[in-house]
Amino acid sequence: MSIPKAIFCWSGGKDSAYCLHKVLEEKQFDVKYLLTTINQDVKRISMHGIRETLLDKQVEAIGIPVLKVRLTTASNEAYEKQMALTLQKAKAEGIEYVIFGDIFLEDLRVYRENNLSKIGMKAIFPLWKLDTTVLIKDFIAKGFETILCCVNDEFLDYKWLGREIDNTFLDELPKNVDACGENGEYHTFCFAGPIFKNKIEFLKKEIIYKPYIVKTTNDNSLFEDETRNGFWFIELIPKN
Description:
- The chain has 240 residues and is α/β, with parallel strands linked by helices.
- The protein folds into 2 domains: 120 residues, Rossmann fold; 107 residues, no CATH class.
- The strands form 3 sheets. Strands 1, 2, 3, 4, 5 and 6 form a 6-stranded mixed beta sheet that branches. A 4-stranded antiparallel beta sheet has the order 8-7-12-9, with helices on one face.
């Protein structure tokens, strides 16, 4: 009996890697494509800041082709338009499901479900409401390897960048930080584990800080930009 076709939303990080492993093991869906959003101007995975060249290394090691949604602007309107175009092409191939590694962000789940319903597709959340501490410990136990590539400086400083997630990491993580960074405290790059045919070799380079700037207004007048916390990134490049 055939199983339904699906697309897997791939960020390159630990939650994606763990979730994909779970989906492939359970064999409830036939994953035809990975799906990744790329900042076209800098050729990097959106938010995580990982180079497209490293994404390509992951895709090659996993063995599932990738669909890249290329964005030239950060607006929600542009994102939704490009995402819909890509998914509609996949739907024409008989794919009805999109799988996400989200765990407990209710508003994000509703947003994804609403957008997919507009084009007649359904969202699947295999990790929904799982205990993040249990999840990350199982991630480590299964032999996955991942490092922090981005941290929110409201929660963690730059010294956490480049650290591999292991039991020592979990012991030292501040109590106000979710074990999986599910509130945006940190993001990761996964480079080894049971879903990969080979370990991805890379080099750690410079550390970069990007402030998060918002526009403030009052009585329709634009004030100076207000800087509210920011993000530290570590530059990762393929070793060969």
